[in-house]
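Researcher: Here's a chain I'd like modeled. Treat it as a single chain, no partners, no ligands.
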Amino acid sequence: MQKLEVFGSNKLKGTIDISGSKNASLPILAASLLTNKKIFLRNLPKVKDIETMIDLLRSLGSKIKFKNKELVIDNSKQNKKFASYNLMKTMRAGILVLGPLLAKFRVAKVSLPGGCAIGTRPVDIHLNSLSKLGVKYKIFQGYVHACAPRGLIGSKIRFSKISVGATENLIIAASFAKGTTILNNCAIEPEIKDLVDFLVKLGCDITWTAKRSIKIVGVEEVNETTYSIMFDRIEAGTYLIAAAITESNLKIRNLSPSILKTEIDILRKIGARVIVKKNEIQILGNKNIKSTNIKTAPYPGFPTDLQAQIMVLLCKANNRSYIKEDIFENRFMHVSELNRMGAQISINGNKASISGNIKFAPAELMATDLRASVSLILAALSTKGKSVINRIYHLDRGYEDLEKKLKKVGAKIRRVN
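Model: Modeled as a single isolated chain. Structure tokens:
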């Protein structure tokens, strides 16, 4: 099994180019099932979750190939409606094929999803909302058996809580429903807006009518289209935090700074110098880090996917900080590993209390999920000595060329078997 060796204490300097967004690519790939026309996707990240989703689409009958840095999807012979557990067990986004399969075939059998063990992530919001479009379903032996005998029919739906995945599934499904669908209390993450932009370019009729409300008029025909995926804001945020932790000077390129306003504001608040340009952010870390309190929240709040990373930075602050995790109930599993490196973090329910003025010590570590993996790397970069991070397959699910990008700016990091 592969592991990472990280040799800390090096200052980082240079430029990191941000890859395409994993979290935007996955729903767009699922939405491609709606059409039998060819789709050309650009700026897809080369990460394991994307490979898994492509394998899932191929298992459903999609013909997919890479040509001149574009992913070409041909669904002209796509006719299968069964998404197996074998392809869903490592990736929660697989549930997003349910909506388009029901829109296209009126029937689907889809495994309940897997992914990181950071919470229950129930699909009940997906299923309850789809039922309002005319879907009947039952869960049997780990699979969702669903059908829409009369096809999907537009409806007015208010999500019981803000859910990124349910919002994506319903936007995709309603795009081919009969009549008009109104979705209220929607998630508004930039990745959802990227999905909407893709579907509109495809020929769907979707309009934002308020901050968290969407109007969708179902269509029957769509266009062949080419689309470029947005940048990965979680990858960008991770490298911004890496610069702050290691007191480094980094330029992060190929992004839209306005999307990262919350993260930039917090980094400035705790002492980093951040210079914003059109498609670039330069960050200069400061050894005098100020403590703060953070609560994770749906966009435009602070993202749960950066909670583990910012926690590492707050261990180096001048006083005690607090993080309240309001998205996933098991997202503090990195804490025990950080404490083994010398952190002093205590957990009470969904709140973490983080002592400041910590100097991390190198250690052998175990990654528990995707974002926890990278938080351990960030902590290791600030130590004096060698740390070893095991179970890095989590890391490969969501970060493209992480070692290569860090080496380019001066980190000493290598992958070993």
